[in-house]
Amino acid sequence: MDKTKRYPVNIVFSYLMLSSSWILFSDLAVEALSNDLQEHAFFQTFKGLVFIVMTSFLLWVLVKKNNRDLESANDLDSVTGLHSPSVFFRYLKKRLKSSDTSDRYILFLLDIDDFKTIADQIGFENTHAFLKDVARSIELPVEHQLLSSRVHSDGFASLIKLNDTEQIESHIALVHRRFSECAYRYDIAATCCIGAALFPSDGNNAKQLMASATHALGQAKKSKNAIEFHDPKLTELERHRQEMVLELRKAIDEKTLEVVFQPKYNIKSKLVVGVEVLSRWTHERYGVVSPEVFIALAEEHQFCRDLTMLVLEKTSHQLRTCGLLGKELNSVSVNISAVELNSVDDMDYLDNYLRRDPDFARLLCLEITETAILKDIDQCARAVQKLKKQGVSFSIDDFGVGYTSFSIFNKLDVDEIKVDRSYIKDLETNYRSRAITSGIIDIARGFGIHAVAEGVENAQQLAILETLNCEQAQGYYLGYPMPSQQLRESLTSETEPCSIA
Ligand code: C2E
Ligand code: MG
Ligand code: MG
User: Fold this and answer.
1) Ligand 1 atom 20 nearest Cα
2) CB of 330 closer than 8 Å to CB of 360
3) What is the pLDDT of residues 29-79, one digit of tens each?
4) 22: domain range?
5) pLDDT tens per residue, range 261-287
6) 172 with 258, same domain?
7) Ligand 1 pocket, 400 CB below 6 A?
8) Is residue 245 part of a domain?
9) Are 180 and 258 members of one domain?
10) Type and span of the H or E element at 158
11) Is there a single domain that holds both residue 333 and residue 460?
12) Which letter, b or e, does each residue of 402-411 get, where b requires 16 or more Cβ atoms within 10 Å of its Cβ?
């Protein structure tokens, strides 16, 4: 009889034995205990209750065991037979918790390069067989191999206990070699990347160790067929980054982030036609943090909306206080992230905010970079149109770098294009930069939108831009980003009224 049949038969048999013995012996016991009729009835009821409690307990044990069996069936990956990620993480947590600091473990993550291409190449069934073989190849023939798992479609994790740290590299190299042999057997040019982290130096708990191994794998994945060990210096950097995120959140909440204003000039009239607002973050310990750094953090951690609101609030307040808004200044450019334009909520929020400050909205120009990451262009176009009804204008920033293409002008109703400063930088010496700048300016004119050159640092660049018929310019040669008070002084100064020096 096989195991699946033997198990229920055993249960039924045991139950029969137990219940018959109970009936037989409990009645005898009751009779021996008392002859009194009333007492007899009481003992009968009592033994009935005991029987119910006992059988309920047995039933509970059986159901629990069954559930455990079901769980452990789910705990195995059906393709490779390895443990599921949840079992692996649970085990890792338990194992590391019960280890002392003299124990040494290595956790490695293996990820197959271009898995989809391989799967397409060898077909569904062979892919399963290949994954099964890979699973076998990561199970090293070493006595301290502890547990392995398939953590996602083409990713594996394995934990090994080390006797001495000399073995680390040889273990990982062996896994890598065994993977190559496996690929060779399937006649495919498959490669893999491995990221490894050590306990306790790269993390003294499961979460940290996993984060370190994931980080190492991320580094390895920058190329193909690579092995990377976790670098403790990178952990330190990551910790610093996390800390910086919290500090940035605080700076936004406490409104300690500041704004500065860089003037934009009309090249022909030599007059200021507007300002670009730039955020500045000076931290007590980090010093001045570049916007390139903190804007990226804000994008990653969904702080952009709050940051933009703070910038708008401060800009409107400061330019009003110094009496420039709508007088000397008729255009105020604020940078927004494409992440915000992608979000219906963020754009609605912005729309509602500007409705409360219509005089400011009319003068506002929103600069967008990285338009290539705009997800739903029709939805973005609707958000742009909605804001345009309030008088807001739009600019495509840093044009010519990244993946922004001319097709954006067909899709979004923009008013301005800013030639990236990398083309302006060598305008005098590089004919290619000059040709590209000239092309962008011509196209802008064709679309009937303003062209602005950013990053103008000398008179020569400005002169070339004038010959190329560029309309506006901005850069250190014309004016550095400055606080509102200084802007007011430069715009209202009687000796040099708003003009290029
Ligand atoms: P951007 O919008 O292209 O801003 C122009 C950047 O060029 C500013 O850098 C400005 O200080 C710098 N710049 C201006 N003239 C010159 C010049 O002649 N030479 C050189 N080498 N650089 C010049 P900054 O302030 O470091 O900002 C960098 C980027 O960070 C900005 O590029 C913008 O994309 C982003 N950013 C700044 N503030 C904000 C903000 O409040 N919100 C968002 N979403 N992004 C912002
Ligand atoms: Mg800008
Ligand atoms: Mg720019």
Assistant:
1) 455
2) no
3) 877 777 777 787 888 888 888 888 888 888 888 888 777 766 665 677 888
4) 3-75
5) 999 999 999 999 999 999 999 999 999
6) no
7) no
8) no
9) no
10) strand 155-161
11) yes
12) eebeeebbee
